[in-house]
């Protein structure tokens, strides 16, 4: 019998095989409707059904024409078309190659990926992911989250463009960001951030850009008065000097903070502190036996505080020796310190207990800027409110506690046979350590404390918690490196 005769004779059988394959596909689409990767499951189903049908069509031409042979072909098509996708699909879909080719990720996952890129300064890559998410999803909640993240990205990109004076691109970014804040009803912080960017844009782009970029010159210098890092936020208090004169009324755009790699960091908050801002200073004075030779220096230093303070500055005084001899003899007030209170030096030394009492006294200050000036020889042999017996470890812990309270700690080493400068340096991470024997240096220190609120800029910026150093620049001054304590 010829092949054509077989095709004619077994056409009904072959047609039934084709119908079985089609039925298997419809059954498989119903069975695998909830598959994790529907596209791959469909491809696998169609491939298995096609293979089974073609195989059984060939079998129909060559096998014996019997009921059992026909039944086998139908069963094979059904089993092969459904069993292989049911068993192999969930296993194969886990392969990265399969997922990358067939399984498109959830668009909303791209928002999380964009936020990670945003944290490390990859603003353009983050923006691409956010816009892909908005193009691919219709979920209202997902779109709202994506649009809020897009507002943050546009605002941060605007900060970079402000520094580069790219006014046309800057205006386009801010118009989109402002449109999104109105459309989504974004929270007030986002709205204020966009508004601040617009104000900076108007200030920078109102005048034509300089035709020649200024070159760094030593006539402009930066003075970092205070540095602090808490989680992912850094704070710098800065003065700007030009030819020996302090520069005021600078805009936010005059300052740049960058990572060491050159990636700009977003300035979240910018303030200029005006003259005559009062401070609150608590003097913590060691009156233990070891500082007996330094009592005259301590009295002279306390008088220096009285002489350098402004009328609205608040002063407080804590005296300490042993754990039972810690006395807050003056709460923060506008009255001068009574230097005659330091009239004796006896007993053991609970240095860190005394500092903690001084830190507690800063909670009674009525002004924002608070300082501790600790006058001691750095020796500690009786503190009970610290967990370690190691003086160095306790100094580092005290520095952390003071920083948490946003208090600047300055230490003054007084004359003693047991003077230990190293713990005093480590404790004063938010301030400085000074030897009391050099009263000229002490006078400069007190003038710095009381005068540090007379025209300076406070810059708050986002930074990675693992960063220890950033670069700061203002106007055309040379960049300075600022290192934060661990």
Structure description:
- The chain has 486 residues and is an alpha/beta fold.
- The protein has 4 domains: 3-102, no CATH class; 109-205; 220-274 and 456-483, Immunoglobulin-like; 279-451, Rossmann fold (3-Layer(aba) Sandwich), CATH 3.40.50.410.
- Helix content is 48%, strand content 19%.
- It contains 15 helices and 14 strands.
- A 6-stranded mixed sheet has the order 8-7-6-9-10-11, sandwiched between helices. Strands 1, 2, 3, 5 and 12 form a 5-stranded antiparallel sheet that branches.
- The longest helix has 26 residues, at 67-92.
Features:
alpha/beta; 4 domains; 15 helices; 6-stranded mixed beta sheet; 486 residues; Immunoglobulin-like; 19% strand; 5-stranded antiparallel beta sheet; elongated
Give a brief outline of the structure.
The chain is α/β, with parallel strands linked by helices. It has helices at residues 3-9, 11-31, 38-62, 67-92, 96-102, 109-119, 123-136, 140-164, 167-184, 188-205, 295-308, 351-361, 391-404, 421-427, 439-451; strands at 220-230, 233-242, 245-246, 255-258, 267-273, 279-286, 314-320, 327-333, 369-376, 408-413, 433-435, 456-462, 469-474, 480-483.
